[in-house]
Amino acid sequence: MTQFPTWTRHGDGRSVRPGDVVHPGERLSWPRTVGVGVQHVVAMFGATFTVPLITGFPPATTLFFSGLGTLLFLLITGNRLPSYLGSSFAFIAPVIAAKTDGGIGAALGGIVVAGAALALVGVVVHLAGARWIDALMPPVVTGAIVALIGLNLAPVAWDGGGAGTGVKAQPLIAVLTLLAILVTTVVFRGFLARLSILLGVVFGWLVAAVTGQLDQQALTGLRQAAWVGLPEFHTPSFSLRAVVLVIPVILVLIAENAGHVKAVAAMTGENLDRHMGRAFLGDGLATVLAGSGGGSGTTTYAENIGVMAATRVYSTAAYWVAGGTAVLLGLCPKFGALILTVPAGVLGGATTALYGLIAVLGARIWIENRVDFHDPVNLFTAAVAVIVGAANYTLTAGDLSFNGITLGTAAALAIYHGMRLIARLRGTTPESRPSPDPEL
Predict the structure, then answer these.
(1) Fewer CB atoms < 10 Å away: N or C end of the chain?
(2) SS3 of residue 402 by DSSP
(3) Contact 332, 58 (CB under 8 A)
(4) Are strands 85-87 and 395-397 parallel, antiparallel or unpaired?
(5) 81-107 pLDDT, tens per residue?
(6) Terminal alpha carbon distance of the chain
(7) pLDDT in tens, 30-47
(8) Among candidates 7, 1, 5, which has minimal Cα distance to 25?
(9) What is the pLDDT of residues 99-151, one digit of tens each?
(10) CB of 332 within 8 A of CB of 228?
């Protein structure tokens, strides 16, 4: 933990010279720092609000706890790791399944346990070092897990998991929203291009409003909502079934947090590996905090890495501003009610792009780490795990139910380490093994 942070002024506080960066312990002038902080809030909006809208969690509560979680993360990491903690998409499928069985309380209980497990991993990593994480989850395993999550969510984009909140509900609105996201991405440059999801959602909402396709009950709630008030809180309940469904998400959170630390290190030129354990601990405790009050599980946000890359401002002061702003917005029921007016078709169009991006991100991990798919161990690890997740294989054992993400994650770990162990015992090398298909 650390005392309330102070920052040294970077240069004249007004600009960043070419080739220079504003380091985590520095800041620009406070007006400019506030501006960058608000940009971070805008950058996380689209993705952070999509998760509670899909899972049925209160959006204002999720925003409130994402802000608190960000501030907690900054404290735990000693103000050395710039990061915004937004809603993790990895929680969507298991949370929907857990809610089906035990309601929102059971889903929150699973989130709390997952956060506690991640925090425990953080303590171990802080004491023992981070190298064992790379050994347990090499890039082929990490990429497979991320890819299968995106593919597992594909049916949710179509029909909202049966909740009528996807493309199927309002196909024309969904297509127009998706087109707006695609066009915005290539028409604009820099920061606006990074807000393509948010701008697409706004466009879809406006089209729905003009054509009279907004939910009237939601609009009534918007008119009646107060400007200032506490968000809607929920308390967790704990069931073994919900915990089993949600707990595999920590593997994704480990990969996301580790990737965030390495990305910030590369952009700032600082070695931040020694802070890896604190990052896991910070995100884990933020997730516990969110799950304890009705918010979505959190993770470090890639969208905000984009803002840092565009501005070259890595000051944690900007993230204190962002976290505080999110907390204040969470205390505005009117704002939360506005988010609830987003139509089903808009969500369907946005999630079609978002879930596809998650799946492709898995492939990007393979490419950037030059995973060798001529090695049959890598090939089968990815192949089996992705299919198990995409098809949503389900295994029921008594009162417990294991879904595609759980089974796919287990398959990736078991196949990779099992085949590697057998190869070592046999005295063979990956290069000596023939590929099952010479064209692969």
Answers:
(1) N
(2) strand
(3) no
(4) unpaired
(5) 999 998 988 888 889 888 887 899 999
(6) 50
(7) 888 888 888 788 667 767
(8) 7
(9) 887 899 999 999 999 999 999 999 999 998 878 877 888 889 888 887 887 88
(10) yes
Residue whose tokens read 């190869």: 423
- CA nearest to 290, candidates 100, 86, 99, 82: 86
Kind and range of the H or E run holding 122 = helix 92-128
Task: Inform me whether the pLDDT recorded for 9 exceeds 80.
Answer: yes
Spatial CA neighbour of 315 closest among 86, 79, 38, 39:
79
Residues in contact with 217: Cβ distance below 8 Å, sequence separation at least 6, in sequence order: none
Residue 26 DSSP one-character state: E
Per-residue b/e over 236-269, b at no fewer than 16 CB within 10 Å?
Answer: bbebebbbbbbbbbbbbbbbbbbbbbebbbeebe
Q: Cα 380 from chain centroid?
A: 26
Q: Work out the percent of the chain whose per-residue pLDDT is above 90.
A: 32
Continuous segment of H or E residues that includes residue 296: none
The candidate with the shortest Cα–Cα distance to 207, out of 165, 166, 178, is 178
DSSP 226: -
The predicted-structure confidence for 250-278, as pLDDT tens digits, reads as follows 888 887 788 778 778 777 778 788 888 99
**What are the tokens at 242?**
């919900």
Question: What SS3 state is found at 92?
Answer: helix
CB of 236 closer than 8 Å to CB of 105: yes
Alpha carbons 383 and 204: distance in angstroms, whole number:
36
Secondary structure letter of residue 22 according to DSSP? B
161: left (phi over 0), alpha (psi -120 to 50) or beta: left
